[in-house]
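Below is how a single chain appears once it has passed through the pipeline. First comes the sequence as given, then the structure the pipeline wrote out for it. We keep one example in the README because the format questions we get most often are answered faster by looking than by reading.
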Amino acid sequence: MDFYRFSCGSWNKLNPIPPDQARWNVYSKLSSENMQYLWGMLEEYAKPAAGPHAQPAEDRRLFRRLHG
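Resulting structure:
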């Protein structure tokens, strides 16, 4: 067995290159997962506050002011 297969074989099996990517490595995966996490946070903060008279939290007001 060669050293490349020994060192990278498990990574290659567990992390196939996604169809929309030309290459895939640990940094690509980290970037993709971070973008998904941040997108989820933004969607959560963009939701309106609950209740008819509820005031949005300070961070929601800031988000809306910056990105509204």
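Helices lie at 3-14, 26-46, 58-67.

See the next section for the split statistics.
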